[in-house]
Batch of 2 targets.
Target 1
Amino acid sequence: MEGSGRLLCILRQISRKTPIYSRLQKATYCSGIKTKPLDEVYQKEYENIEEEPAVQCGPNKAERVGPSTDTLTDTFGRQHTYLRISLSERCNLRCQYCMPENGVELTPSQKLLSSEEILRLSEMFVKEGVEKIRLTGGEPLVRKDVVEIIRGLNEFRDLGLQTIAMTTNGVTLARKLPALKEAGLDLINVSLDTLVPAKFEFISRRKGWDRVIKGIDTAIDLGYSPVKVNCVVMRGLNEEEICDFVAFTKDKNVDIRFIEYMPFDGNKWNSKKMVSYLEMVDTIKARWPDFSRMQDHPNDTSKAYHVPGFTGQVGFISSMSEHFCGTCNRIRLTADGNLKVCLFGNTEVSLRDVMRASPDDAELRDVISAAVKRKKKQHADYLEEIEDFKCPGDGMSMRTLSTSCTHSFTTLMPAGIVSATFLSTPQPWNTQIRQCWTGDEESMKYWETDRRARLAEAAERGDIEEDCDVTEYKQDHDNYRNISENISKSDCDSLTHVDTAGKTKMVDVGYKPDTVRTAVASATIHVGEKVFPLIKENKMKKGDVLSVSQLAGIMAAKRTSELIPLCHNIFISGVDVSFVLNEENHCIHITSSAKTAGKTGVEMEAIMAVSVAAITIYDMCKAVSKDMVISDIRLEQKTGGGLTGRKSLDIQLYMVWVLGLTGLKSPDIQLYMAWVQGLTGRKSPDVQLYMVLGPGVDGAEVSRYTFVYGLESRV
Ligand SMILES: Nc1nc2c(ncn2[C@@H]2O[C@H](COP(=O)(O)OP(=O)(O)OP(=O)(O)O)[C@@H](O)[C@H]2O)c(=O)[nH]1
Ligand SMILES: C[S@@+](CC[C@H](N)C(=O)[O-])C[C@H]1O[C@@H](n2cnc3c(N)ncnc32)[C@H](O)[C@@H]1O
Ligand code: SF4
Ligand code: SF4
């Protein structure tokens, strides 16, 4: 709807929502060109309009919830009644999808907004029609004057401010929330991406899971309802926890909001890591078929759902697959005082400079109005620029890729019976994630360098928040060390493939018991500077190099016995191939893991997988350059084999759970682990856990414990 039609619509909205006629004095044409005051031109129409239900108007069907003035109305008729203020650029976590490991470059403190400046700007925004202010960041709670700021905002209720909200990582929430509430905080959103403490540490590169849970519980205890919990879902990292998170809403009044992973500068986003809203709904419906949609609130970013009978609810923030720009009512203020009219927009205008130059609000209003009028219709333009972004129509291919991820477990719940399939290998969890979290070189480096030293450095820099226990960060991380440290080098004392007469023979493994065996292999292909960017940006004419090579590797592993003469044909229960791109050296590191439950090992399959994946990369890229070198094909580690294997399992534990978790919790597993550690003298013993779960036992819960301890578990 263009011109006067849209304007009429706006007028209808305003008449419905705004009893104060004077607000109309400031309204202008939606084209953004300043014109005569509305009362002169459209008085007649205004008078003829009766109150009526919400009208969706304009090409974007903008829903007006608030009576913001023209200053905050954009050219698409969207009224911006929701201001998000970043209180700090700093953060006490380093979530991989959000911040680089060493944090962001910090603005000098004199350039940051003081609390007085934040309050002055807020007051002006509220006078212009902002009804909701959300404090965010960085991490808002690292700001020392946060309580004073909320107290100051609370003074603006009479001016029209209805809601003061905060989004926090929750690490220090439990302690600070009573004061925040007393100062006037109405709503709280807490971010939590995993229910597995050790995984939390991997994702956020800091400890603190238990603190966040405590923060959520404190918020519930203090009467916040619902407490919204934000979970960014990333394939290969936490997607398998979606149902666990839904189960979390069974008895807790929380609103779990699954967020589609969004691309931001340098956060290594790629479409394969993104799990779309519809895919998540499918996953949940497979377990709870009556999982259903609820009524959304206007302007909500999330689509509300629930499992009937559950206390809490679920939401999906589908910024990528189904954007909600049409009803956008948000603007943002950065910690250094820039106004950002769109989360994805590049344009920012400094309100700080205008404000510091003049005590008069009029100039500020003009600058804000001009910026709001420049706001684009939606962020799709930005997404189209991201070559890797594909609409979730191709969700199937994403799903296909994810099925090769060996560490993930599925929790299958046919009515009343709990069973779970655990495919994790007996390595510390971080190694498993490293294999699955493809292409993330930064994470690889992180685990490979001495984190204690780096944490001490961070503490010295003051990067770690004052009230976070630094000593906690410095704790020994032995638990997470790669198990390969503990596996002695293969004792090649005899060559079993050659018989005494020097002829070849296939070793009879018939007498060996079936045991679970895993192998990890790696290879490197140096592709050179011409080819590297084409692979990285997925621009190779022949197709998606990494996806094709991944499939080639997996297929090759399955056919190893046909190609290597004396190899046994074994049943492979899982195989995964992943890649890490090394920009500096223009090479790709390929890792594979293979798994079987049989009489002989799977290292040949793992080695085959990386070899063929490397050759396939060569094949896909040879038209661009033939200067590629495949090197360093090797076995990284091998586990399993029971008492007859060279790198034998330390122990197999059998456990039976029939009475639910009351009788068996994390400490029990800890106890067993201590016992096995004592028995074997190894810090990370190689343990296979067989579990028989009875009805009423939460398989997912049990799996979390075993996952944390890096146990191989079979149910
Ligand atoms: N596209 C887009 N996504 C946003 C915007 N604001 C928040 N989000 C998404 O919503 C997620 C959760 O943000 P929160 O800080 O909890 O805020 P919120 O969802 O607006 O909170 P409510 O006020 O409870 O609706 C973010 O991680 C983003 O993914 C926005 O302006 N545009
Ligand atoms: C940037 S954080 C700031 C507030 C606070 N530090 C926190 O983590 O809640 C606000 C929200 O943005 C989400 N977020 C950050 N990076 C994201 C990304 N790449 N994709 C989707 N959501 C993201 C976070 O999970 C969090 O819920
Ligand atoms: S806690 Fe929030 S601001 Fe900090 S790194 Fe994580 S998402 Fe980003
Ligand atoms: S991307 Fe921009 S326009 Fe779209 S909802 Fe977010 S802030 Fe609004």
Target 2
Amino acid sequence: LTRKLLTLALIKDGQRVLLGYKKRGFGEGKWNMFGGKVEKGETPEYAAIREVKEESGLEVIGGVEQIGDLEFTFDGEDFLMHVLVFQARGFSGTPAESEEMRPQWYQIEDIPYSKMWKDDEFWYPIALRGGKFKGKFHFQGHEVILNHTLEEVEHF
Ligand SMILES: CN1CCN(c2cc(NC3CC3)nc(N)n2)CC1
């Protein structure tokens, strides 16, 4: 089983969240948080901070804290995506389009779940109210969740 360690970062400013429209690659055409691969020799926290800067232009201030741990598997495929979800403690700058992502602020009530990965509608509500979570989602292709588990946790 091939495993990939990836990050996502919640950039939340009051009642609005910064999301990015993925212009190419995996998840192209979907809105998502900013994130990417954890490179060799990198901590996941640093990788999350790096990806926010690369993909949105924002500087993370005060580091990130882990809020979620998600595992994704795909029916009939032998790879597992382990996505660590962080929240930025603070940030500065103006969001700027990158090669990968077109950033946009969304009010929480307007988050475009129909144009996002199907798992998001399960764990975003916990993340947006400051909760911590662990989840496993087993997909058939990219649009159908065959089964999943999701629990709120006290700490990592
Ligand atoms: C570098 N990216 C970061 C985000 N990521 C995913 C995946 C995902 N579901 C999995 C079925 C695909 N759901 C969200 N929200 N993000 C994949 C890799």
